[in-house]
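note to self: dont lose this again. the chain is below, predicted strucutre after it. 176 aa total, dont forget to put it in the shared folder this time
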Amino acid sequence: MKNSYKGIIKNTVKKVCLSVLTIAMLASFAGCGETTKTVKSEDMKITLSKEYQKGTLANATWYYTSPDGLAMGIRSMKDDVEKSGLEVNSAQDYAEAYIKANSIPGSPKVESRQGYVYFSYKKKVSGTDYSYLTCVYEHDDEYWLVNFACYKELYSEYKNEFFKSADSVEFIEKSE
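---
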């Protein structure tokens, strides 16, 4: 009788262990899902972290917020920029004009990266300090300004993610 109880207990323990192992494996696979999403707007696409949720903001072509920050894109047609009186001949010129027109604090330096120029700065908005990474792309007859922002104290944590998203920008050829 003792042996039969031992056998039943042994088999039950094996089944429980196998079930726990199976559940653990399935849970680990569920955690391996996509952590990014591709956002398409007009003729541009960019990859953002899944935590970003679509929102709306006046004058933004696209706008996404996350618990700690935001990402947005603004498309400006070159003709419209010219009509506004700005003398802009490149993404570099556009970035410098944007800094001046928006009184960006600290006169940030515009730097180059593969396919775009960028600058970063800090600004207090409604009593809260934010850090920004602003990227400017030139494509066909337009300029795209992509702005990332987060709480100032989190910038060092998010900076690489912002650059990763900025580096992912692609332009889709317009259909004729």
